[in-house]
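Is this the right way to post structure tokens for a design question? Let me know if I should format differently. Anyway, here goes:
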């Protein structure tokens, strides 16, 4: 158990069975000490403040003020939670949509979560206009050149699920399916190509090492035969009577 988690257990215990007035101090000490930059500690503190009847707006502002010490990945997660809070607690759909748009614009090239959070938000909307809200995301995701292919597949699969479940035009669902297949095939083909190239390169290196003149084997010893191989022999065939023997030894290690 990490030290921040131990503090969280203590804070939860005090809130339920002890002095709830002192819990805020525990959280503040945690966030300025061992829990600084700890995502779970930040989230637990925000929930605690909400339970203490903090106004929704004050709680909402904590998402922004407490994100500064988090790493980039955790900041995206907290930003998504802030947008969801704006939607569910503040009951402000426009604010939430604007926030999701900003999150995707800032982090969409590196974070699948920024898109998945937006997709889930649009799918939860009560109106019947899901297609108009969800379909543009398909194009936006494909435009992310730096987003990992596996992340793109994950996002598009979720879009496809919603397209089918929410009754979006079946033609659009098929379009998404074609993109998923294309991305999967391309990734698989690239993986096979990389593996073949690595195997070919390894075979070439081994052949070069085994067929090189004895002095060259000793010269290349460090590269092919271990940390000490290149200590024996010198370039261009300068003589060390034991060079070939040492090189052969390290070749087998």
């Amino acid at each position: 158990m990490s030290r921040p988690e131990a503090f969280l257990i203590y804070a939860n215990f005090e809130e339920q069975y002890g002095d709830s007035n002192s819990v805020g101090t525990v959280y503040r000490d945690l966030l300025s000490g061992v829990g600084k930059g700890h995502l779970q500690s930040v989230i637990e503190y925000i929930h605690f403040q909400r339970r203490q009847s903090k106004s929704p707006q004050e709680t909402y502002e904590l998402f922004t003020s407490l994100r500064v010490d988090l790493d980039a990945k955790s900041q995206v997660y907290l930003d998504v939670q802030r947008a969801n809070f704006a939607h569910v607690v503040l009951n402000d759909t426009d604010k939430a949509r604007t926030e999701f748009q900003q999150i995707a614009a800032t982090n969409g090239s590196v974070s699948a979560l920024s898109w998945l959070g937006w997709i889930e938000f649009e799918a939860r909307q009560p109106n019947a206009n899901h297609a108009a809200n969800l379909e543009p995301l398909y194009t936006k995701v494909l435009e992310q050149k730096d987003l990992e292919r596996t992340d793109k597949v994950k996002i598009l699969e979720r879009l496809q699920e919603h397209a089918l479940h929410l009754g979006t035009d079946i033609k659009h669902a098929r379009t998404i399916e074609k993109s998923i297949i294309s991305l999967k095939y391309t990734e698989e083909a690239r993986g096979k190509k990389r593996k073949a190239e690595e195997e070919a390169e390894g075979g070439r290196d081994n052949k070069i090492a085994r067929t090189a003149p004895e002095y060259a084997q000793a010269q290349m010893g460090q590269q092919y035969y271990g940390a000490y191989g290149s200590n024996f022999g010198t370039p261009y065939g300068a003589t060390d009577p034991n060079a070939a023997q040492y090189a052969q030894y390290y070749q087998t290690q």
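Format looks fine. Someone answered above. Worth noting: The chain has three domains: 1-70, 71-210, 212-253. Residues 124 and 213 are 71 Å apart (CA to CA).
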